[in-house]
Amino acid sequence: MTDTYFKELNLHPDLLVDEINSIDKDKQAWSSHFGFNAIELDPNLIQSDSALKRVHQIQPIARLGLLMIRSSNFYKWHRDTYRQCCLNMLISENHNSHTLFGRDIDSQNMRIAELRYKPKTLYLFNNQEQHCVINLDGPRYLFSLYFCEETPYQTVKAKLTAAGVLCH
Predict the structure, then answer these.
(1) Could you write out the DSSP letters of every residue in 69-80?
(2) What is the Cα–Cα distance from 160 to 154, expressed in whole angstroms?
């Protein structure tokens, strides 16, 4: 069931995490981006990080960003209005936060699935399925990107599968 919501990549970033961790997050000019606080990352990382470079060859990447949710916040259930799918990687490690996907069972109940992020791991993320984030800890940092062309999750998943970069 989780395959319709997210899929782990078997490519692991080699420069991206260190680059993000070197950012002094308290000194950034965070801007509001669809309810998140966001900063844009250096687009040169697309060519310098081996995982991003490989994905870019399969599905071209337009922009990279770091998203932050403040302490003790709930980012409500939603489907993205613009993005079809993206790649995400949780930067905050040992963090008490939850990314949930859900489908209504009836007017009061929802069947949920949790994306339990592994450290330094990229996930193809279906932005068109209902999802939310519950942050029960300090600031939560997430790497995310935009592809050059908004493409449905299943199409990108098929391309990444054919290229052998998704976990089984």
Answers:
(1) E-TTEEEEEE--
(2) 10
DSSP, res 22: T
CA pair distance 52, 118, nearest whole angstrom:
17
Taking the domains of the chain in order of start, what are their residue ranges?
2-162
CA-closest candidate to residue 4, choices 157, 121, 142: 157
- Summarised one tens digit per residue, pLDDT across range 59-105 is 999 999 999 999 999 999 999 988 999 999 999 999 999 999 999 99
For residues 127, 93, 91, 152, the Cα torsion angle rounded to the nearest 10 degrees is -20
Please give the class, per CATH, of domain 2-162.
Answer: mainly beta
On whether the pTM is more than 0.90, the answer is yes
